[in-house]
Amino acid sequence: MASLAIPEVEEIEVVYGLEGAVEATSRYQRLAAAFTAKYGQAPELYARAPGRVNLIGEHIDYEGYGVLPMAVRQDTIVAIRRGGDKLVVANLEAAVYPDIEFGTDPAQPVDVVNHTWGNYFLSAYKGVFEHLASKGVAAPPAVGLQVMVHGTVPLGSGLSSSAAIVCASSLAVAAVLGVAGSLTKGDVAEFACSAERHVGVNSGGMDQAISVMGMPGVAMLVEFNPVRATDVQLPAGATFVIANSMAVSKKAETADRRYNLRVVECRLAAMLLAVALGKAPAEAAGITTLKQVEPAIIDKYGPGAEEQDKAVRELLHEGVYTPEEIEGLLQKPLSSMYEGNASALRVLGVVGPEGFRLRDRALHVYSEAGRVYAFRDVCKSEAAGDDKLCQLGALMDASHASCAELFCCSCAELDALVGAARQAGALGARLTGEASRQGQPLHRHFRCCVLLASLSAVRCYSIPFCNMPSVHLSSVASHPVACSATGAAAEAAPAAAGHAFQPTTIQCRLLCCCTRCRLGWLHCVAGAGG
């Protein structure tokens, strides 16, 4: 998969299928008209990259472990042409995303202090030139580009809207500059991951890999170093529903106390484990991921998840590690270990008395890595279909518990959403994407959950959110309305007995339809009934 060339298509049905072609055609026509109205000429080409839902494997890609996501139908389109002497980046939703202009120098820095949505395009632009330089390929002259973007991946929902725009922008820039023909899917996945780090987020690579390498109807086991993807056929009858709280979490703007903090904590945990396992502090300081420590754990404790759990519990203490304690164990200042890593240094600058919870982070990473391969093995097993679904649901439940309790990347509202899904009959449910228990008011910092149900099951429920009206959700089943090309709202069934119901707007759209699985989307907007 990683070695395949980037496909170029001329028929929209190839990308969106017959059921989505009408809606997609209208969208491209609107984008083309707005582009022409702004720049005076039509775009030379379009590039498109989808969002993703991570079925299992949260916060472990940047630790070198495999993950199991699926691409979703929601995507980002970038229309582009050469022209002018600047990079002009516009958006079809101009009232929300104002025009941004940059110079054409690919070496220019990305302003992470004053973050704008256009930074994602600039990071992709830089990434193309950096990739060519790393391969010893002469780059084409930097020229002015006229760009217009439109995305349908909900912002801050945990479905990787940022990776979608970076991947689509990377493809658009490479194609318009005439270098796309030399790129493989693996190339784009790897340099887009590195490029997104210019906006200040230490991305691990999952989001870009599945955006570039995802295929209809299957999940992908995405592994790293080098990046590669393997199809995972989901059990017949499996229905995955994404429930979006509609509360936004902007990863790039809050990374130093959230996403990047977890990256730093995991590396610190790896270094301290290495010291406890006998490595000299100077040698341990060169370790960057928990996966690098795994061989030493196997040598002392043996292979397997239970042995990893035992090692972490014995070698790392409970509670908080202070910066001073870590520096004493590693015998050097933390700042020297992260020299040249601007995002990590920002994290060190804002961490206060809360310190670093290293044992919890390591316990999550090792256990979650095991659940990814267990999920894959269940899908491949000869077990009966219902048994498979129950086993997958149990793994998703365990994943959410670990995310909430050990990695602290859930929140009260998201926990309530997951709990309500289970009460309504979901076989399993977990957060997808990243959230937080820290910082700003919690209702602004959570994302989506993904729940698993059998195809025949239909459940309705309502959830009283903190400081919000109740939100009524309905799972997507095999229903003709959900498959309509127009994406019209599907009528929800009455609320289940015992659950309060308040008026809401419910939109149910089928993202990916095949004989093996169903992937649905619940776009939940609280109505005025609160």
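^ that was protein a. below is b, sequence first then the tokens
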Amino acid sequence: MSSAGSRSASAFASRSFPSLASFRRDGDDDSPRRISRTTTATTTATATPTATIIPRTYFSSVSAPPAQQVDVFPSIVIHSTLNAQINDNNGLQPQGSFAEAQAAFLNPPKETIRSLLGQLLKHNIGIVAHYYMDVELQGILHGVKRLQMDLLNRHQQQHQQQQQQQQQQIPLDEELLEIYRQMDLPPTHAIPAHPLVAIADSLAMGDHAVRMCSPVLSGGAAASSIICLGVDFMSESVAAIMARNGCGHVPVYRAATRHIGCSLAESAEGKGYEAWLRKFGDASSSPSSSDKKALHVVYINTSLETKATSASILPTITCTSSNVLQTILQASAQMGPDRLQICYGPDTYMGENLKSLLDAVLSHDESWTDSRIRDELHPLHTRESLRHLRDNLHVYPHGNCIVHHMFGNSVVETVSDKYADAYVTAHLEVPGEMFQIALEKSMNDEGVVGSTSNILQFIERKVEEAAKDMPSSRQHPHNGSQPHIGSTPQSQQSSSPKRRLKFILGTEAGMVTSIVRSVQDILDAHRCHDVEAEIIFPVSSEAVMGVEDDAEGTNDSSLGVVPGVAGGEGCSTAGGCATCPFMKMNDLDAVHDLVDMIQSMRGADDGNDGSDGDTNNYRNKVELQLRKHLPPNRLKGKSINGRDAIELGSEPIVFMRHFMKNKVMSDDLVQRIERMGQL
């Protein structure tokens, strides 16, 4: 099978559901805090006509829980940092208490950034973090990455200048010397070519860690420790990817010593998921069903143990929210849609949303002809084969992420009623109603459904297009035609001729840090003052929690609220979910503690530990504490059906890697599927 099938699937994504190009490629105190409600947002929204959506017959069968009515969502308006009018606010205008709490951490102190980078450089430590990290932590990590790259560029420029002027050494400017003083490093300290900080989705976190640890890929300054900021299955996955790429000797440390769980990943770790898989494995292995085959497509956001157990029951391949559509289309076409049973899990919403997508195609028989399906979706698929695929797609019914689960009905109603002029983004894990709005919008390139990376890329593209378009827009002012979707018409704005792009952020609020940085980079690069992007959080403005008082009952924080919960486990009962409570177990204090422990280990090894002579005892204590931060290793030394459990758990990722590179299922995976009827 050639790669044409996968490329055609990409064409389907980009032509028919334009923003489904998202599917194309890559891309210490943990105790609960007390909760307090704050005032609601003071901003108002102009009522607009209800957005048209696909009829409810195409909604996925799973719905989010109801919630109180929410009329106006909090938001952050992002401007170019070069705009002198709003320079005092660092180019940001938060609207509503939740947004104010988010924005407060987006521009951390330079001294904090410089100090952390100095520690990472001095001790060769790399940090990989998920997009859903605490907004304060993300702001600092983005600053560290930017500063490292800025220092690298300035050193390279200085080297070029020295060569041009044939000088042995050009003195550093005073600003650069001050930066090195605050980092507690000499100005001659080597700066790695690859960033020591990466913020990415769960799969890319492992790839970045490998680059940091590789002497070749890192530019000669390989990291000797990795701090992984995420939930436990992420640190476990990062360690496994590093081990398979020759970096198994580099330790990976979690931010907390306690278990950092994930409601979605843990829904696949019980006996129920195993029994669900065995139902299809037994059916495919029975003599009466010798022609029926089964493939388990498991979401990457699961533990290594889940992957290993699954692979021992059914042939298994992992997927991401970016490539899941490609995966099921190619597997079905390659194995035969009428004979291949595809079992998708554990994310129920994502699986049901995939069914909704196929239903949307099959319901439009006049527009989605066999010819169009072959041209734009897959060369080996027709309406009949898609119907077989749809009928043979089985979704685990009991798995969801608590963050996306809380996009309740009232949130969806507000999006439809109050924000019809906005672009709508939705992670594939959100409930069917929210997904449906974004899916309908994506048909006209007015929205996107996909992964966190896909959402970020969509926003970047829209802002880039608007920034490039503004010079001609100023030459040809608004002429009364229909306004751009996702933007506020000039007639509804003040005297300023700005164009505002509105984006509903249908995923975890922690993504806003990466969005702000990317949008401002684009606007600054184009020196564009006339475009602004409004990131709208589909949560209640009360979705915040009070900063916990200290032991004396006082609160020394200048900020009264931080993003978090107003009810339930990380979600607001007033509508929508603010942040993931598990991800927020990663914080700045934990990072500093880990860096200090790594520094102490190095000091003990070098004899500079300040331990009053008892170096071995001191080192053992530090090492014991660091071991508590290692990823879970439940599979070490275990075997399943005679195979090493870690190797078996890594196999589905290897199959996915092959598919991502070659656009077809590997021969090994195909043979395993074919052998099922012969067991």
